[in-house]
Design the sequence.
């Protein structure tokens, strides 16, 4: 085996790290899973209890007291299906962005494909969305029997969502190495971002939707998380296949962003060891 | 440019290697500020390596010496693949184990055992291989009681031991070592040296970087000396190390090999000796003992305004201290004695070397130099102290009355 380290020209994103370093990815992933779910006080239980608690709170406020949810059936399940997607997205992007800093010592001293650092932490987050879906889907099946025909689509949607998250994670993690406040700006940004994402409401159900159609369009396609929230909700709660625009968006934007993110990581792999 | 034939395991071949770093001139590492102030991050190019050719053969121990910032570590990191050369072609054959800046590269939050698995996976080893050798690795590192603790809690010695143990057990073809042997206790250093020798005997390639030119000489067959990113000396390790020492005593790093020639034969350091308080000439002292360093200089011609610098370095080559006498007058064809009186020896324990440099008043020309002109052993009578120097000072403790 000879390693040829010559000048790397920024070409197309390469996927060779996926095949050549499976053992390393597995080691990093398993370690991340252990640390996140086994060692922390409540572990996996926490990642179930937290969204359920939030569901209870939102239901109490918006459905029971404020009564602003007219027209949305099964509001608790509606909120929960959105929270599952958003919760994964937020947590994975946040930890992914900070991941290279945590592994600085490793990156500075040995070579391995840098994209693995973010990949491992993002993939470890799929455990909680997986567990939540395993709990949520059977309940939805009982409440809304029509979902039997569509719930399997949740798997490819989660796949595309993981791509979207990886892509953003890769991009932001590189940016965070150059500008250390990206992580913190992101944490601040996530709150308004959450309210712009239709987790607690449905875009069409908003009273002002009809008079501001372009705002609805912007909120739906300008916010990359929205189609995933709506798509997931359609297949696991409403029992319908999402419309073509949303489907295309889900399966094009996610993988495309992943490729862009991968290109950026590979393009700047060299600089990471120096800037860290 | 491409090297056609591939290299053998344990071989390193580099052609025209250069590496440029972009040094950021603006201090800001904040995206918010960068955007608000609309400042374009300005950078300056720094060439850490310039046009280096290198051929290291399988089974060879190869040393790299040079001052801080000469490009040693950059070259080592190129070999490790941590970053690529900006220009040139580098080929490294086989598995490369590296111990750069102490430690093989660990994740601080991972435990000792987890890091062994992590590192092994980075080097492409199967999990089953690590399962088999895990106990051996932990045992060699003497870390059995700490193996399940995150390595961020390790001392630098423990960190180094684990790094060394992992690097030796991944069956590398090339081992990159950077100053590692200066950390850790002496017993473990001996163990490391033993392992390195075994590795070398078994045909492994070693690339060793150090300021401690003495250990480069001990371990390496061949060496290069780097200065400002260029190879300025190449050959048998002993010769390169000697050239390095000659260069070290010249104070301004670039100023004139020219002047040296002109000065040759005109002036020399005749003798350097250490005189104890009772007047006896010795090379062994205890800490805090009064002593004087005597420098005997001989000059053919009379010279005025000479600067004479006496420097003391420890066994690893790290300067401990120096003193310069300005405006010294050397009379023609006479042995002149300079005496530096030290009321109390500031070093605590260890072997030390005395260097003497003689230069013109403006520091441009070197008149004479003597590297390691004298070797001193210093012993401590206080086992509770630590480190290379005697801290001294007096304590003021909470009194029985004042403590209330």
Sequence:
């Amino acid at each position: 085996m000879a390693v040829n380290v010559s000048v790397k020209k920024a070409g197309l994103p390469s996927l060779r790290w996926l095949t050549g370093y499976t053992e390393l990815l597995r080691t990093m992933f398993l370690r991340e899973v252990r640390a996140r779910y086994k060692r922390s006080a409540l572990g996996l239980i926490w990642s179930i209890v937290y969204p359920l608690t939030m569901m209870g709170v939102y239901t109490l406020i918006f459905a029971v007291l404020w009564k602003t949810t007219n027209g949305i059936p099964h509001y608790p399940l509606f909120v929960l299906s959105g929270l599952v997607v958003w919760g994964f997205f937020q947590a994975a992007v946040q930890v992914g962005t900070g991941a290279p800093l945590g592994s600085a010592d490793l990156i500075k001293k040995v070579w391995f494909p840098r994209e693995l650092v973010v990949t491992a932490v993002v993939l470890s987050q799929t455990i909680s969305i997986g567990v939540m879906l395993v709990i949520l889907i059977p309940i939805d099946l009982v409440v809304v029997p029509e979902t039997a025909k569509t719930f399997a689509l949740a798997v490819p949607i989660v796949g595309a969502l993981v791509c979207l998250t990886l892509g953003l994670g890769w991009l932001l993690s590189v940016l965070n190495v150059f500008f250390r406040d990206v992580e913190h700006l992101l944490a601040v940004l996530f709150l308004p971002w959450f309210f712009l994402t239709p987790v607690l409401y449905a875009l069409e159900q908003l009273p002002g939707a009809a008079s501001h159609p372009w705002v609805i369009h912007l909120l739906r396609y300008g916010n990359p998380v929205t189609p995933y929230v709506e798509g997931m909700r359609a297949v696991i709660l409403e029992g319908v296949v999402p419309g073509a625009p949303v489907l295309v968006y889900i399966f094009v934007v996610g993988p495309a962003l992943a490729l862009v993110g991968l290109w950026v990581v590979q393009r700047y792999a060299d600089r990471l060891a120096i800037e860290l | 440019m491409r090297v056609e034939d591939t290299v053998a395991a344990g071989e390193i071949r580099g052609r025209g290697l250069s590496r440029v770093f972009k040094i950021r001139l603006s201090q800001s590492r904040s995206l918010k500020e960068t955007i608000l102030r609309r400042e374009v991050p300005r950078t300056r190019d720094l060439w850490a390596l310039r046009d280096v050719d290198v051929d290291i053969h399988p089974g060879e121990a190869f040393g790299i010496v040079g001052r801080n910032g000469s490009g040693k570590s950059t070259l080592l990191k190129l070999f490790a693949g941590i970053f690529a050369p900006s220009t040139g072609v580098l080929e490294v054959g086989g598995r490369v184990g590296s111990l750069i800046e102490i430690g093989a590269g660990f994740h601080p939050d991972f435990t000792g055992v987890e890091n062994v698995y992590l590192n092994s996976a980075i080097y492409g080893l199967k999990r089953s291989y690590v399962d088999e050798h895990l106990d051996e690795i932990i045992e060699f590192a003497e870390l059995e009681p700490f193996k399940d603790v995150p390595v961020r809690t390790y001392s630098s010695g423990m960190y180094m031991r684990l790094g060394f143990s992992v690097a030796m057990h991944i069956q590398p073809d090339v081992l990159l070592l950077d100053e590692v042997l200066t950390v850790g206790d002496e017993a473990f250093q001996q163990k490391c040296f033993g392992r390195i020798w075994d590795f070398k005997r078994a045909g492994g390639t070693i690339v060793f970087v150090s300021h401690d030119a003495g250990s480069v000489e001990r371990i390496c067959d061949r060496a290069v000396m780097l200065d400002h990113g260029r190879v300025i000396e190449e050959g048998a390790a002993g010769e390169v190390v000697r050239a390095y020492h000659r260069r070290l005593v010249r104070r301004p790093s670039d100023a004139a090999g020219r002047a040296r020639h002109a000065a040759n034969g005109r002036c020399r350091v005749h003798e350097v000796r250490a005189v104890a308080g009772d007047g006896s000439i010795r090379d062994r002292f205890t800490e805090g003992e009064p002593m004087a360093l005597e420098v005997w200089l001989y000059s053919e011609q009379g010279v005025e305004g000479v600067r004479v610098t006496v420097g003391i370095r420890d066994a690893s080559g790290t300067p401990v201290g120096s003193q310069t006498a300005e405006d010294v007058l050397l009379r023609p064809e006479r042995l002149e004695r300079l005496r530096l009186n030290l009321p109390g020896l500031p070093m605590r324990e260890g072997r030390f070397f005395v260097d003497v440099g003689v230069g013109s008043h403006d520091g441009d020309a070197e008149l004479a130099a003597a590297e390691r002109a004298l070797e001193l052993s210093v012993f401590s009578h206080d086992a509770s102290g630590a480190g290379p120097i005697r801290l001294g000072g007096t304590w003021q403790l909470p009194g029985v009355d004042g403590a209330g």
In short: The two ends of chain B are 79 Å apart (CA to CA). Residues 251-264 of chain B have pLDDT under 50 and may be disordered. The CA atoms of residues 249 and 357 of chain B lie 6 Å apart.
